[in-house]
Here is the input.
Amino acid sequence: MFPSHSRLPVPADPADHTECIVVREILDRVGDKWSVLVIALLGQRSQRFNELRRQIDGISQRMLTLTLRQLERDGLVLRTVHATVPPRVDYALTPLGESALEPLNGLIGWAAEHGTDIAEARLRYEEAQADAAAG
Amino acid sequence: MFPSHSRLPVPADPADHTECIVVREILDRVGDKWSVLVIALLGQRSQRFNELRRQIDGISQRMLTLTLRQLERDGLVLRTVHATVPPRVDYALTPLGESALEPLNGLIGWAAEHGTDIAEARLRYEEAQADAAAG
DNA sequence: CTGCATCCTCGTCGATACTG
DNA sequence: CAGTATCGACGAGGATGCAG
Here is the structure.
């Protein structure tokens, strides 16, 4: 969370401390390992648990469950249980979740576009470090 | 990082695994506690170390140093040392750093706009949980 | 198939003390 | 003023086993 005294240059009321906290919480969600990927996948189409699991190579059952719970809790994802046998659970984005796709894709787009710039910057940095150590 | 087999629905070449990794790394940066705030503050004007420190209530000296180092390493922030006494170090956004402001503000704007929606969703969720437990 | 509980590891962050 | 070094606490996340 942003500490309550600090400010974020958001368009809206910069004096509102609550807003900073809210923003920090959401940014935290963006930062955690799987949330954005899950949102992006559900943005394509609604899917079942193991359908997601198979697409997200490397995710543990536990983390997929936790991630989906959190997204459900935040109102970004809708969980639908079908009382069939075997049980079937569908996950879909809510309208709120869909509204997140746009800013998220903005960020993802930026990342994809400037990824090489960053990689190059890192190389230059390492180089400079090596020079400093050698010199 | 995104596992190398998973895909992100970015406009550009979805088959490129490297892109996923790069995107995940950048998303991680967004998620860490202080980076976005530092970028936002430097977006207003370039600032000195303790100038930033004072504005970011709650940050430790260590974390501000680490955060700035990482942003410098990634080419988002430029560090300028003035050989005066006492020493003076200025931090400023690079053009790359400034280019990040737009997507970042997009996300921050979304968060600010939908923060109450999320808060409400959480209340409803807790409520439903309580009902389930009681019923 | 979907999901919870447990254990354990590892990285991140804060506190503190010290340096140029 | 602007760092670096070290230590400890904490929590995210993976592995595994069990349940509805």
About this structure: Residues 48-50, 61-62, 65, 81, 85-89 of chain A lie near DNA strand C (CB under 10 Å from a C1'). The first helix of chain A runs from residue 17 to 31. The helical segments of chain A are 17-31, 35-44, 49-55, 61-73, 95-134.
